Predict the 3D structure of the following.
Amino acid sequence: MSKNNPVVEKQARGKGARYVYEELKREILTLELQPGAPLDETTISHRFAMSRSPVREALVRLSADGLVEMLSNRSTLVAPIDLVGFPRYVEALDYLQRINTRLAARNRSAAEIKEMTRQARAFDAACEKNDYLAMSATNRDFHMSVATSGKNPHLARAYERLLDEGRRMLHMHFDFIQSSSSDRLLSTDHYDIVEAIHAQDVAEADRLAHEHTRQFHSQFMDFLRARYDDDFDFDVSEMAR
């Protein structure tokens, strides 16, 4: 029937593209697809048993999300995680996190406070299950519920893009945080932020948002140092024999 009905055919193709997009996005965010891994349209088409058109559509959408890079030679790669640019990323994240949280403290409604609390609890539930993909997703959703209540869609969209870019970094070091005796997850910070926003304490909301960014930066740097030490843990005396 779809062969004779272009509307049905377009809907089916759109549904297929959405499925491919969601699956590839999950694999990229969980690092099943490593940064720099090639994404061949033909291979993906065979994998999902569909034509290249919806696959191409899914890759274009992932490119818009900053999760893949479409090169001039028509090849597509999983986007690298830019560790060299990490300080500039954190700088931008800190600014947008603080301004959106400040605006939320000024403009929030009672219903939006309830939504923030619901999202904070969803993050807790993901932490209890050790579901890293859900943890990064619910962390993002919590902060976007804050940004939405700030009532500035331009700042919220910019913030959303940064939060999405950071989800792979969050996923990389969740296990490190959970096994650390000194570090902690960000869940209690969420409730403190909600409390400051509810009280319309702009200065405290700003302080907590800044501390939240600082904690993420510190924990990620600790994770990188720990990985370096683990990878190069060998006995020099053994090499001298």
About this structure: The chain has a mean pLDDT of 85. The longest strand covers residues 68-70.
